[in-house]
Amino acid sequence: MGIDEGCREELGSLHGIPLYKSFIEGWPQVEAFQARHDDLLIATYPKSGTTWLSEILDMIYHDGDVEKCRRDAIFNRVPFLEMKGAHPTDPAPPGLLPGEGLGCPQVIYMARNPKDVVISYYYFYQMAKMHPDPGMLAEFLEAFMNGKVAYGSWYEHVRGWWEKRQEKQLLYLFYEDMKKDPRREVQKILQFLGKEVVEETVARILHHTSFQEMKKNPAANYETMPSSLMDHSLSPFMRKGISGDWKNHFTVAQNERFDRHYQQHMAGSDLCFQMEV
Ligand code: A3P
């Protein structure tokens, strides 16, 4: 059984990266994907703000028209290239592998600090039934640190894309910056896209893409997914939307171990993360 049946199963492996088997089956479609000159790729490691960034971009592309952005669920408006049966005709599909741009002329990457990512991912593993059972948090932390979770190593992903900055038109954003000053980050996106919008539109985009609004918006909060695939009673997709929630979950010992591991794996990189805002 695969993702469509909503039954937990072990991950497969694609080029050494753990991934849902049904996405691996759909991979030839990703390889065959031909980018148009005006395509934009959203690339993220899971739980880093993919849905948030997708909603912001859909609002920008629709000039802040809230009704148009309710036309369908976010995963259909901004499809995942690797999802079987996705029709990548919209301009902003999220990407998959570290540093792969699929020939898209423009890429926006969004990164989030790994401590919040792993906690968000742990809850997501519980509610989204395409994942194997995550077990206890301690176990899941180990799996995450070793890159043995869906989409592989967080370190390779964030570092791979960080290094791509020189070569291509790539805007590298951080979840924490977006939390701190969403207006400034939306302005950065607009500038990157070469779009000018009036202040009133910016205000509408910011309001519509706030956590509170997205949490109650069925077109953004994943509630339209069958509950056999995502069980929001276990943990809502729009869970907390904050930075620093890891502090409510990590033990002191886990935090120390994580910090050591982080330092080893980020050595030699000028990429820095804010663990809280
Ligand atoms: P938490 O589980 O920490 O709450 P992705 O879309 O990449 O799967 O990421 C999901 C994470 O982004 C979840 O984090 C979710 O709550 C958070 N998120 C989604 N929309 C958000 C928004 N508008 N503002 C802040 N966080 C948001």
Automatic annotation (TrEMBL):
<keyword id="KW-0963">Cytoplasm</keyword>
<dbReference type="Pfam" id="PF00685">
    <property type="entry name" value="Sulfotransfer_1"/>
</dbReference>
<protein>
    <recommendedName>
        <fullName>Sulfotransferase</fullName>
        <ecNumber>2.8.2.-</ecNumber>
    </recommendedName>
</protein>
<dbReference type="GO" id="GO:0005737">
    <property type="term" value="C:cytoplasm"/>
</dbReference>
<dbReference type="InterPro" id="IPR027417">
    <property type="entry name" value="P-loop_NTPase"/>
</dbReference>
<keyword id="KW-0808">Transferase</keyword>
<dbReference type="InterPro" id="IPR000863">
    <property type="entry name" value="Sulfotransferase_dom"/>
</dbReference>
<feature type="domain" description="Sulfotransferase">
    <location>
        <begin position="38"/>
        <end position="269"/>
    </location>
</feature>
<dbReference type="GO" id="GO:0008146">
    <property type="term" value="F:sulfotransferase activity"/>
</dbReference>
<comment type="similarity">
    <text>Belongs to the sulfotransferase 1 family.</text>
</comment>
